[in-house]
User: What shape does this take?
Amino acid sequence: MEHEFTARIMEILADEFRKETPAIFAASPLLQYLNLKTRSAMRGSKARGSFANLYAVYVLVEDYLEQGFGKRKNYRDYAGAKFTDLFQRQRELPFGSKLQNHALNSRMNEEFKKYFPRVEYVPILRDLQTNRYWINENLLRVTIGKRTRNISRVVIAIIDRYIETKRDAFERFIETCEKLGRVSAENDVQVSEFISSLLAPNTDARIFEIVSFAILKFFYHDQTVFFGFDLDSIQEEPLKLYKTGRTNANDGGIDFVMRPLGRFFQVTETLDARKYLLDIDKLEHYPVSFVIKSTESIGALERKLRAGAEKRYAVKAIVDRYMNSIEEVINCAVLQERFDQAVAQGSLRDILGEIITQSKVEFNYEEEI
Assistant: This one.
């Protein structure tokens, strides 16, 4: 696969390997994997980034180089990197503050094998007893003719360039939001069109979650309910939506919570029914609304979820119990409708302001708020 960022990869390889660049790239499954995982780099902030699996490779190759194995040959005798050190390092990297352990433990290897089923090596080696990790040096050493080249330094350079490119894209996204926030009220159409453009399947998962929150927050904010412990203490209260943390956090399946109703919202982009069933299990079948980054109809999404549940559980009563735990399914079209309603209520600038605020927090620009 060749895409816009491929040229950047080839430039980095050429700086290190000169005329051998095409042959090394063709002979290296790991470099080809990096090429696949960096295809979103030049597509701007809307395109989904691929940080988890790339960072799993990055921290192990970084450890490999820090231990001096780029120049010496006894990596096979190395005791391995500690999981806690690798995990902490992942979270220190840009966009990595909420990454979990899945990529290091299995997902990176699983994805690599999916792309390269005939390659006999997996990138990450792990000792379950000692919880130590290694990068598979067989994938770092590329043989061209009679010469063997070590690609560890270019692996780091490629991922660094990807990070830099994605960070620049997010900075431009925030700058665009701020610029739109300063335009006159006469240009509300431009602001509205920009926000609507973010309700698309190719939008970065974190931006989609932020935009979804901003829209739903101001869609519900002027709706009220009556609460009280007895007839004499009933009071009218507005619905308030709260974000429970940063995006992609491992928080038990709750992205937003609404007071005073206690509604839970989970934002997702996958159509894998197992993920939905797991979220429902984690919440002990407490009703949850799913905000799905999809243009498919609500009916089609619900049928897919039911089909997935039926495939996993052959008993109708169990399937019905799971499906009854889904309070509402919200797709891109519903979000657009609720955005239009919130705009009609005069909340356009509030929604944009919320997107700016949440984006700065999410992408570590708190100091600029």
Remarks:
- The first strand starts at residue 81 and ends at 82.
- The mean pLDDT is 89.
- The CA atoms of residues 37 and 50 lie 6 Å apart.
- The chain has two domains: 6-165, 183-368.
